[in-house]
């Protein structure tokens, strides 16, 4: 009796068709989902908003993978890996939603014509086409800074996703309903580490406080809506970032105080940069790693 290898099983499961070598999977992420854009909503705005949320997840996931083989303990490598996978799953759904409303448009080249939308958006956009915030693209720093950044990012994202469950766009609402459970774990995990480090040894306390000092200014543009967000908020699709500010402040203040850490002054709001495609060299370097192989072999299949 012939016994398939794992490679035979993968190939046979898809009728021996060629598959793009760097894809996130073979199944359409939104298969069976009604992707009709709600009445009164500009598809272009919806696509850009999905890029904002999806790029945040994709870039932060890439940052977390940089801790693989470098985390302070094996169990933490598994935890960070799982967090990164959760975020990649969210990114895939959100980028697929962006693709479903025509974000790619004419930018798709012949070389990427057969690549799923979410993969084309992840691998073949330049830095100035990404819409993530500066919070997620900043360098990791040491482990304490990474945990403070994860605490802030997951607290903000959880507050947004909790409200997005009521979005008029059923796709966004469904993505948010699934994501809140993942993000609640991310926030809890990061908070436990911040408590452990802040209320630990003098050295861990110092590093945690330095992490807070480094991350806090990165919140300055998180709560200012872009024009796209403002229009979608009015249409009942998006969440006004200013609406989550008080909740985020309360959560972060509570965690830091319990960790015996000093809460810095809340940064003044500034106009969003990353949401408008303005990024630093950190993102360019990160994307070189994320996209390099796929761009060298854009038509590769297996």
From TrEMBL:
Any Gene Ontology CC annotation: cytosol
UniProt xrefs under NCBIfam families: PA_CoA_Oxy3
Organism this protein belongs to: Geodermatophilus nigrescens
Cross-referenced PANTHER family: 1,2-PHENYLACETYL-COA EPOXIDASE, SUBUNIT C, PHENYLACETIC ACID DEGRADATION PROTEIN PAA
Pfam families named among the record's database cross-references: PaaA_PaaC
Classification of source organism: Bacteria, Bacillati, Actinomycetota, Actinomycetes, Geodermatophilales
InterPro entries: Aromatic_CoA_ox/epox, Ferritin-like, Ferritin-like_SF, PaaA_PaaC, PaaC
Descriptive protein name: Ring-1,2-phenylacetyl-CoA epoxidase subunit PaaC
Source organism, top-level taxon: Bacteria
A GO BP annotation: phenylacetate catabolic process
């Amino acid at each position: 009796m012939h016994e398939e290898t794992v490679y035979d099983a993968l190939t046979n499961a898809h009728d021996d068709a060629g598959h793009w070598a760097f894809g996130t999977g073979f199944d359409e992420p939104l298969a069976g989902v009604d992707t009709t854009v709600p009445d009164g909503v500009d598809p272009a705005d919806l696509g850009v908003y999905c890029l904002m949320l999806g790029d945040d997840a994709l870039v932060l996931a890439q940052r977390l993978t940089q801790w693989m083989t470098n985390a302070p303990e094996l169990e933490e490598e598994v935890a960070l890996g799982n967090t990164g996978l959760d975020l990649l799953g969210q990114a895939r759904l959100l980028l697929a939603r962006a693709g479903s409303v025509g974000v790619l448009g004419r930018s798709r080249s012949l070389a990427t014509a057969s690549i799923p939308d979410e993969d084309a958006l992840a691998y073949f956009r330049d830095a100035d086409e990404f819409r993530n915030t500066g919070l997620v693209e900043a360098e990791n720093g040491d482990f304490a800074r990474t945990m403070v950044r994860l605490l802030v990012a997951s607290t903000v994202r959880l507050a947004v996703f909790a409200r997005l469950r009521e979005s008029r766009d059923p796709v966004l609402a469904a993505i948010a309903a699934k994501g809140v459970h993942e993000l609640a774990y991310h926030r809890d995990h990061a908070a436990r580490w911040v408590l452990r480090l802040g209320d630990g040894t003098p050295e861990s306390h110092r590093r945690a406080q330095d992490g807070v000092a480094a991350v806090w200014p990165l919140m300055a543009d998180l709560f200012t809506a872009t024009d796209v967000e403002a229009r979608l908020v009015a249409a009942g699709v998006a969440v006004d970032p200013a609406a989550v500010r008080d909740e985020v402040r309360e959560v972060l203040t509570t965690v830091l105080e319990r960790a015996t850490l000093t809460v810095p002054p809340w940064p003044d709001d500034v106009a969003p940069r990353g949401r408008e495609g303005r990024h630093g060299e950190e993102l360019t370097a990160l994307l070189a790693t994320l996209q390099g192989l796929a761009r060298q072999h854009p038509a590769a299949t297996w």
